[in-house]
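Figure 3 (text version): structure tokens given as input.
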């Protein structure tokens, strides 16, 4: 009886936390159909008193929303694919090969996760300038190709794969690249899904780095473009909420399609190694 009461209380608590978390997004979505005067009014209502679609039509008046959306989508997908591949490859090497200095290399990878991002931004910016990559997507993609977190997660996940399968493939004459491509990669789909979701979120929502290295407005990403709704004297909140509501659709779709693999990958990486 006591356990049942505790379970009910926990579910109620989780439900309340869920409502608190989701409510701002629901309010933003509802506000995207309101006039600015209603959004700024002292008396607030969750549902719009006058339902309008003008915010979704007029948001292109501030910037080319579709261009920024495509820019962000392309850069995010490219970075995510590269990080998934390099993390899986490095995780495979560090977990299934025994060589001198392996622990030292893995320790170095872990140390990159402990250094605050703000500490590395100045030297990374200087390197981008010296390479001539300013105002280029190379400045966004190449420095993000390797992820310490991704390598750590995939090493933990691939460590749980049976060595017997890999040895059987070697006996049959398969080379190491074939084993990685055809055996390790497909068997790591849960861990890959976890890394893909994390990396997609981080790249899609990144603001500071694209703001620093991309100068041409047509090349800019959506996270920076949303700032253009802030005028010198006023902000078009209705259009801003409309653009933000559309910008979170890819994130929701990615999580909805891969949520089972995401949870399984996190669980496997947490207990294996």
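Below: residues designed for each position.
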């Amino acid at each position: 009886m006591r356990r049942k009461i505790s379970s009910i209380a926990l579910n109620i608590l989780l439900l309340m936390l869920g409502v608190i978390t989701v409510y701002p997004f629901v309010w933003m979505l509802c506000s995207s159909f309101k006039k600015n005067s209603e959004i700024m009014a002292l008396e607030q209502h969750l549902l719009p008193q006058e339902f309008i679609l003008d915010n979704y039509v007029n948001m292109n008046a501030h910037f080319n929303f579709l261009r920024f959306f495509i820019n962000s989508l392309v850069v995010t997908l490219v970075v995510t694919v590269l990080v998934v591949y390099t993390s899986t490859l490095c995780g495979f090497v560090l977990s299934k090969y025994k060589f001198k200095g392996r622990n030292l290399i893995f320790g170095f990878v872990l140390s990159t996760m402990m250094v605050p991002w703000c500490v590395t931004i100045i030297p990374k910016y200087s390197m981008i300038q010296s390479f001539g990559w300013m105002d280029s997507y190379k400045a966004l993609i190449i420095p993000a190709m390797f992820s310490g977190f991704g390598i750590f997660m995939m090493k933990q996940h691939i460590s749980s794969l049976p060595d017997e399968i890999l040895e059987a493939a070697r006996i049959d004459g398969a080379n190491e690249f074939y084993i990685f491509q055809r055996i390790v990669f497909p068997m790591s789909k849960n861990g890959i899904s976890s890394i893909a979701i994390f990396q997609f979120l981080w790249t899609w929502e990144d603001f500071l780095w694209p703001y620093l290295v991309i100068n041409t407005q047509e090349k800019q990403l959506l996270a920076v473009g949303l700032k253009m709704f802030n005028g010198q004297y006023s902000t078009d909140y209705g259009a801003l909420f409309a653009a933000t509501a559309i910008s979170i659709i890819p994130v929701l779709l990615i999580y909805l399609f891969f949520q089972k693999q995401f949870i399984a990958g996190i669980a496997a990486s947490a207990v294996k190694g």
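The domain at 62-271 is CATH 1.10.3720.10 (MetI-like fold).
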